[in-house]
Amino acid sequence: MQEFALLLWYRNNIVLRKEYSMKRLNEIIKCDYDISIKGIQTDSRKVQKGDLFVAVKGFHVDHHSFIDDAVRNGAVAIIGSRDLELDVIYIKVDDPNKVLAEILSNFYDHVEEKFRFIGITGTDGKTTTATIVSEILDCCYIGTNGVCYKQYKFPICNTTPEICELYECLDRLYNLGCKLIVMEVSSEALLHGRVDCLKFDIVSYTNITEDHLNIHQNIKNYVDSKKKLFSLVKKNGISILNIDDRHYFDVKNCCKGKVYTYGKNKNSDFQIRKINCQENSTFFDIKLMEQFYSINSKLIGEYNAYNLTLAFAIAYFMKVDVNTILTKIFAINSIIGRGEKLDFGQNYTIILDYAHTYNGIDNIISNLKKFEYKKIIAVTGAAGGREKEKRAKIGKLLLEKVDYVIFTMDDPRYENVDSIIDDLLCDTALTNYERIIDRKKAIYRAFDLANEKELVLILGKGRDDYMAIKDQKLKYSDFDTICSYFEG
Questions:
Q1: Any idea which fold 111-331 has?
Q2: What is the mean pLDDT of residues 361-371?
Q3: What pLDDT is attached to residue 474?
Q4: Alpha-carbon distance values, 95 to 56, 62, 82, 148 (Å)
């Protein structure tokens, strides 16, 4: 109820702020038109009366096709690159994509210059690391789990918001007194230039393994998108790199500012040593300039030793006292939807995790197999419209590493769920699985099968609150489903 009330508060205040922040069109772009603009949108579905619509060109969609929709929804002015005659004000520019950031900056009084930014990219570990950093620094977090600042929380559409949504978020946060933001920066956001308007104080990456190749086409393009973040650091900024990652040298060669490293490698600036993974804790040392700092964390797994070390390094360069860093790390009990243990008084263990890449799934299962679970039951699927070529490899990994798998729905979009599961099974003859299309029924089935000292591992969606079917995001939550099972 509290989060719902806060969301209503934000929605009400967005309207007030838009009225307060109104600008004249000739204030935000050079022109002769002196009319009021209440907001700026590139998505015609979000246009409200009094807005400016910018017809950007995406990789797959040209937003000029939605100008008529924008006008019907209340746009009073349009910016595009075609020769058009409209019933509303139309300004032709060479490239709407290039002028968009400038227009937004002018509209929001250059709000992006009023923050310090920490950017974290990588295939796996962004959410965990960014959340740890936000806890240590007591600053705003923007990422997969939404926008979180002190007691305020509101959702966003993507891991890294679209540029119009990003500016709106920054405007809200500035009005709340926020001055420091740690944000997850996705490869897609970098590809589409969503954060080109920002200058980062610290940038970093967790790791780079194959992912999102449906967008980037090949690993080189994917890495190149990740590398772009390191060109956005301030001249005197800091880049922190995973020296153990196979793409380390490729990323290092494009870095601006000072470069520091972390990892097990003896040449690391922040060297990870003596990792000891327990069922409920992870212990290790960080060697920094001949000093050793002992980490005691409730976040389990060797992969979290990397996430914690990166967070430690970021906090260190933000001038946080080391003892404060260690104390705050110890105080973090879990990251929602990331290796999240759920206790309803059951005699078996439940872990909810967002892992959906081969690397992410392999990491969490390999870690959990070190502990004395009598049996591991996994519930998972694969997203539709995403890299079909990865599915067989992931399916084989699951069947070889856990005792029993229930394959189910996971954001199928326009694909048939049975066909997705067929792809997951096509490279193995193992039969330690069943398929249950309905994800709620699949999770219930796993709990019905589980016995004392066994583990049910629910993978793929974490704390997502939707299921993507065709072009809709229908309300669904693994967490709510789990709660409903135990509530009877």
A1: UDP-N-acetylmuramoyl-L-alanine:D-glutamate ligase (3.40.1190)
A2: 95
A3: 97
A4: 8, 12, 10, 34
